[in-house]
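Forgive a beginner's question, but would it be possible to get a protein, spelled out as residues, together with the matching structure tokens, please?
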Amino acid sequence: MAIVSQSELRAALAALPRVRLAHLPTPLDPCPRLSDLLQGPRIWIKRDDCTGLAFGGNKTRQHEFILGDAVDRGVDVVIQGAASQSNQSRQLAAASARLGIDCILMPRKDAFYEHVQGNQLVSRLFGATIVPVNAADSVKRAKEDMAARLRAEGRNPAILGMGASEALTLAAVAYVGAYLEIVDQLEALGEPLPTHVYVTSQGSTQAGLQAAARLLGHPTRIVGINPMDSRNEAYEPPASIARQCEQAARILGYELTVEPEDVTNSTAWVGRDYGQPSASAQKASSLLARTEGILVDPVYSGKGFSGLLGDIEAGRLTANDRVVFVHTGGLPAIFSYSEASLDG
């Protein structure tokens, strides 16, 4: 049962503080050769790798709302910490440069830190200040300590990413807008709603898509493929994703109840660990590239796509289904994982 109409939901989004960073709407590409080869559902790819800023990706769409709120509050420096090949960090560095906000990135000294390539190279080109964190230390705590030092200096910092609940909720809000784009694009093609939307997501991206479907009363099932599991400090379990759905709806002026069991977020495709290539992601990436000319990286969006292919192979999706895969970007990482990318 619908809680809100599409026009009302668009109006609620339009009322929020926002900066314009992304090329929107992003394309929705059909995948006829892949669909025929798999003899499974019809597949479209929502190209959020084409958001434009710094090689694109889902974080650019999210930063429109996150940084819109930050600018509205007079924030003058943003702090983000993640893996050394973080897509979030790359797009944040570019957005900060465009908006004239100082950006401090606190990458973990993981196995790829010393190799200044891919996302890490791009982040540095945008002038971000790099303050590395030892591999065994808490990035969340390091960000909090940095923010405290900056406040003592009279600055107005904002912590983003892991541990920043308000920013993560605004990131989810952005994907309410992405879901509306998908609905509009399929309608323009004369196509019905998708039966499933698959997305590589640690939390916010899936939460926004799921909140939108629930608010609109759509039966579309949102399936998240998580690139990390509970071994990682940033992991969000289904209960946290359910809360983000509710909080995103609340920001837009609506009450929504989402239970943890309503959230499908699989950690079955992580492989060895977060930020590490997996054989299934390499195989999936190769198949997509060779059938549709679309690239996904082997450690993030490739893992999500491997989850979609795995569900098709297992018979969880059939020829009667219509699936949208949300491509969340991450393409600069291909150059840091060149050997893994070619192994597929």
